[in-house]
Give the backbone structure.
Amino acid sequence: MNPGIEFRNITKRYGDASSPLVVKGISFTVPKGTLTTILGPSGCGKTTTLRMIAGLEMPTGGQILIEGRDVTTLGPAERNVSMVFQSYALFPHMNVRANVSYGLTVSGVAKAEVAQRAQAAMASVGLDGFGERLPSELSGGQQQRVALARALVLEPAVLLFDEPLSNLDARLRRSMREEIRSLQQRLGLTVAYVTHDQAEALAVSDQIIVMDHGVIAQAGTPHDLYERPGTEFVAGFMGEAMLFDGVSRPDGSVQLGPITLPRERAMAAGKVKVAVRPEAWEVLPAGAGELAGTVAKSAYLGSFREYTFDTELGPIFVVSPDVQRVWQTGEAVSLRLAGHGLSVVAA
């Protein structure tokens, strides 16, 4: 695939040469027409990375290319990128049509073309009939759509999102992430998307780049990062996982307490970490599985049940889709690994 965005050994520090690097020589590619999420905890360098794509920050070293053109030293206006901010940044005194049209108007585009492109952008995000309303008359989701239309109307080569859904409630957040993904695929947009929300990243991305302390911890498809994390950090950060101490045997198997796991990939013999997702465990009657346990906590959440079991490996948190079978607090059970949601990484 043709690269939409390319980072080549990019570094960034604030201050003089004695200041620490906040981005430490990262390289990655966002293929044209795809959505890449840059994910990580606060302070990992993800927002700085996005701002360097936008031209709002200049790298200390390295090279940035957009659609094959070197833009490393160019300002935001020369890069053909648009950015959707967390705060929406709408002009409160302007109606929706004027907000969406603003970038074209100040660029000197003819009025007739401004009107036509603004109307098309509003229609693409479901804002037909909202042109005369002020931002204060809109819901949070509608304001987010205005910010999106304002970015799309400029027909950018690259569209950037900085924590775009963090101000929305959970239900609206889910709806908007589906709309953003649908729009990106329908229009073939090249998108770089920053979030700290793992579920959001899994839902919208072709590629996820996990950052940790200014470096790329791992990059890959959502499935790869969730099912095959390469490090303890990625295993713990990509969704909920419990990490257990295990031992890799010379034959390639891994011993996790009383459980022997089949060979997953070539690993040196010795201590390892086993990352287990809550949905990876099957709950069985006492004696029917590999790991004995006792129910310590139980909670009903409608479509699934959550349990905590006391075991020889310590407390184990389990999400069970079987809402009909209720295991009572204090009841003896046994646990078995189902063969998914399980990965082994170096200790």
User: Anything to note?
Assistant: The radius of gyration is 24 Å. The domain at 3-227 is CATH 3.40.50.300 (Rossmann fold). The chain has a mean pLDDT of 91.
